[in-house]
Design brief:
single chain, about 240 residues, alpha/beta, Rossmann fold, DNA polymerase, domain 1, six-stranded mixed β-sheet, about 35% helix, about 20% strand
């Protein structure tokens, strides 16, 4: 369950949480919830929602930094910031806020704002989310809540390998030898065909992988690539 602040200026959020939030006074931030970290160790997560004008004031008086320090000292392992507004940089470097269909200058340097947000992420480890309205903010927080209900090792989105598409063959699926050769260092799709033509009927797949300098007999393959192929095929 997500605990949502009862602050007056955040009352528009509750209806967008689809029954996944409880309004209650909370000591830090605007959203807090429990989650898990590595090996299912429990953690607490705290999020702050700020509209652009308030954030700009916080940058000037350091109020947001004090809020972050308070959350860290209270034991929140993960802290994030949601900046909820549509804004842009003017031609002379100011920040403009879109409000009621109009762009309003804020009298604040866009580069200073961007620097602050970047330093939060890179130096303080505070994840920054930019949203356009209360609905998008609520959905972003819900997605974070769901992510933190499993430890990092239980997620698989970062464990994939890029698999570029193969050119379409009108002669059926490529053979195993060519598909394996394609994955070798420096070979790719075209050289894998030359290698298949060279080794097929002469050496088995395993013997071809360990053929060493013989790979240099194939057009486009030199000493460095042949060494890397042998290393890949023989390393344990």
């Amino acid at each position: 369950m997500i605990y949502l602040t009862t602050a007056h200026n955040d009352r528009d959020l509750f209806k967008h949480f689809q029954g996944m939030a409880i309004n209650c006074p909370i000591p830090f931030g605007d959203f807090i919830f429990k989650g898990v970290w590595e090996e299912w160790s429990p953690i607490s997560v705290c999020g702050e929602r700020k509209h652009l004008p308030d954030l700009l004031k916080c940058i000037q008086d350091n109020r947001h930094l004090e809020q972050i320090r308070g959350a860290r000292e209270a034991g929140f392992k993960q802290v994030f910031l949601v900046v909820e507004d549509e804004f842009r940089e003017t031609t002379d470097g100011d920040v403009e806020l879109r409000k009621r269909g109009k762009w309003l200058r804020q009298g604040f340097s866009h580069s200073r704002l961007e620097s602050y947000l970047s330093q939060l992420e890179y130096y303080a480890g505070i994840r920054v989310h930019i949203t356009r309205d209360a609905r998008e903010t609520a959905h972003r927080v819900i997605n974070l809540y769901r992510m933190f209900q499993k430890p990092p090792e239980e997620h698989s989105s970062l464990e994939g390998f890029h698999q570029p598409p193969n050119p379409v063959s009108l002669n059926g699926r490529p053979g195993l030898m060519r598909r394996v050769f394609k994955e070798l260092h420096g070979i790719g799709w075209e050289r894998s065909k030359r290698a298949e033509d060279y080794f097929k009927g002469r050496l088995s797949l395993v013997d071809a992988l360990r053929a060493g300098e013989e790979w240099q007999n194939i057009e486009g393959i030199g000493p460095e690539i042949s060494k890397m192929i042998y290393k890949e095929a023989t390393e344990r």
